[in-house]
Amino acid sequence: MFGFVQMEAPVCLINTLPDGRLFAQPDALQILSQLGKQVVVVSVVGLYRTGKSYLMNRLAGSDKGYTHNLKQLLDTSYDEPTRRETIGSRLITGDSKHDTKIFCLAVLLSSTLVLNTRGTIDNRAIEELQYVTELTEYIKIKSSDPDGDDSEFIKFFPGFVWAVRDFTLEQKISGTALTDDQYLEMALKLKPVVQWLILSQWWCDLCDVVMVALHRGISKAAREFNLPRECIRNYFPSRKCFTFPFPCAPERVRHLDSLDQSEHCPEFLQVTQSFCDFIFEKSEVKRLKDGQTVTGRVLAHLVKIYLDALSKGEVPFLENAVIAMAQIENEAAVKEALEVYQKGMGELKSSFPLELQEISSEHHSLSRMATKAFIKRSFKDTEGIHFKTLEESVNKLFEELMGQNEQASREKCEGILSHLSETMKERMRNGDYSKPGGYSVYSQDLEQIVREYKAYSIKGVMAEDTLEAFLKQKSVQSKAILQADKRLSDQEKKVIEEQECSVLLAQELVCLQKRRDRVEAEMEAQSRSQSERIVQLQEWMEDALKMRMEQDQRAENLRIQEHTALVQSGMSQQAKRLQEQIQALKSSAASSRAQDGAHMRRLLDEMDRNHTENIRALKRQHAHLTESIMRTPPPKNNAGGLFDLVMLGVKLVFGGPATVKKPC
């Protein structure tokens, strides 16, 4: 689990080079990259020395205000009680393009945007927000459609809070008191554009040229009046307003930065507390267009991607940024998931050799954990490309580990047999088996070796295969000793040779059945893993679809709310355009959901095909082993103790026509 980094002071995230280019501070990016949890990002924007720093400090839990160098554009501070990231930005006057870029960054990176101004929300204050009207020039959705409309901005734009400082007006209309929110909505009220129809009745005796000129003049003035208001209403349908009175007596304003909280006006502190409460309670986790939540790590990627585009003089395309970030995050998610699997299997590897059931069970558990780790970090892997990469990588690692487990088993078993054969080797060197009756001694020693070998525990999956190789190796030696034993007659030697063949045949059948058992266990394990992966994948896709639907519904509800307000205000033309946007949003949302569903079906179909092919291959292998067992004649139980040892605990099933093999 990723922890949060507590900071004693704000850290500059984005700074300005002497040539005006923006760049991200590496230490700040490092801090963000350590935040693996979802973040709430709050930006406070406004002119220099308008009180932004005070608000940022209060959000960060500090009683003291602080000031910063003008070049420090974005600050991050950590709020321990709420575990939220707050980011504050200030606009630098003098270069409108530069300021617009900063404003766009605040919009792109924030989940709540606080506009901090002084005085009142009058026409001049709104007209000065040229940044809002220029957002479509600096932010685009798709590179494939650079001239596309801005109707989908609402899906990823932040909530909007207007903080009006040093507010002195009496909020009343016709004697009725207004709330701060009502005051904001009054300031954002639109003017009807088609006023010339009424005026034309007054001036009907004038020529058409005068009427047209008057119409154009009034329409232009109304459009200029409405433009910034329409942008705010369209881009930020979720709006809130706070009007702050003067923080202290006028004569103490110059010492404001050094004042304690107790020296501020009670009314000012009350509004400040309400502002902070609203931010903490209502600010949502930063989300992208499809409802995907943003972590600190993802935010760091976004900062770098957006700044890279702006530094090249390019327009940030949201879709391109998400694709680039998804590639980075999903590759990291695969790596992180594989580390989970490798770490667990690495611990298991120290216990090799293990039986198949043990290693398969651990593989199954770790594979599930790896998939869970991938899903937790993955980002918009809608086509399942990286999910498939993880699956293939885990299967490859498992095959390698199975090979290592078999090798460990083989080496251990060979070591056991080598150790148990020391006495036999010594007697062989001494010529004990070359004497008359030497074969009887040799066979007894061999039986003792097998007996003690069988008694060893934890030999692993290659125990019987290694024993088979050992017995075949000793059979050459045994035949030589048998033929040299002068105490035995030719008939006795012939019977003994048949007994040895029965022992080797029995061991071969034991190995065949063990291999078949392993294939059966592998088929069962693969089927179980496939079922669980499908469940995990479906849950993952359903969660992503749920987030998208919630985001779409939220955007639609806000648009409907704005449409209702326009209808009630008599703004029929604007309401009609907004209704068209609502329909476009619905159509786009339905198309996106259908596309995601198609991606999921293709992924599930491909997984099913791959699983079917794997099972078919295992079934062919199983059928081949079964055929080998069925075609092998059952050994005759005439080999005495060694035969009984070989067959110990093994139940073989025979059937069908038996094909007699040539003598060994």
TrEMBL record:
A GO molecular function term, named singly, is: GTP binding
Coiled coil ranges (UniProt) are 509-595
User: Gene3D superfamilies under this entry?
Assistant: Guanylate-binding protein, C-terminal domain (1.20.1000.10), P-loop containing nucleotide triphosphate hydrolases (3.40.50.300)
Name the SUPFAM superfamilies on file: Interferon-induced guanylate-binding protein 1 (GBP1), C-terminal domain, P-loop containing nucleoside triphosphate hydrolases
Could you tell me which PROSITE patterns the record lists for this protein? G_GB1_RHD3
Q: Superkingdom of this entry's organism?
A: Eukaryota
* Biological processes annotated in GO: innate immune response
Tell me the protein's name: GB1/RHD3-type G domain-containing protein
